[in-house]
Write a structure and sequence with these properties.
Elements (H helix, E strand, L loop, with lengths): L1 H26 L1 E2 L1 E9 L2 E3 L9 E2 L5 E2 L3 E12 L5 E11 L7 E2 L5 E2 L1 E10 L3 H4 L4 H5 L15 E8 L5 E8 L18 E10 L3 E8 L23 H11 L3 E7 L1
Parallel strand pairs: 2-14
Antiparallel strand pairs: 1-9, 2-3, 2-8, 4-5, 6-7, 6-10, 6-11, 10-13, 11-12, 14-15
Length: about 260
Amino acid sequence: MKNSYTLLLLVFVVFSSCGDDLDDNLKASAATQFKFTHQWNALTVSSADFNTLQFINANGEELSVERLRYLISEVTFTRGNGEDIVIDGHHLIDVTEDSGLTYTPELEIPTGFYTNVSFTFGLNNEANMQNYIDLNSVSFNVPEMLGGGYHYMQMDGKFVNSAAEEMGYNYHAIRAVDNVGSNPTFPQDTFFTVNLGAVNIASETIVEVKMNIAEWFRNPNVWDLNVLNSVLMPNSEAQILMSENGQSVFSLGTVTP
């Protein structure tokens, strides 16, 4: 009788352990890291490539990049049933300073297959009205006369103009604004959603996000730096063109492991 009781107890423990394992698997989650890489078409670009006139845009202008930093927010994982797992907050990537090139959200993601991973380029209008100490500290603000809030991107450099002279450009993306001054208006949203595509999260996962810098100057709007090289922040038409070009800038790279 004693042996039978011991056997029943052992079976109960085994099945309980299996149940715990199954429950753990159902609830399993993993850390994700986003790795931001940069290219000019097929050429890999880092801060070491800055400050040199070596890139040719779609309009045929030779140019350099001296500063590149941009903001993403609201990283979202979407399941096949349409359920979204949203990671609140923002992240600043500063290529010039080699800062923020990786982003590891505190929130772990349930393992499984996701039909899409996406993020917002810049900040949506509600988020853009908030006050962020980290962005203030690196002077990423937009002046109140231009609607306030924060930049979506700052890209600066030099180019060779049509007179064969070297001059500067400031390709700064913000919320499109009209009526600059004490009562600005906003004709169109210029933040946008970047859809990277499907990913599978089985364990700790690194997701590469690729930016092709050349796309900012060519698709669908071929950018003429002789015409649009500076004072673009109060130019709502230029901001809308930037937003349109940004749709093809980002893509999904390698997903590991």
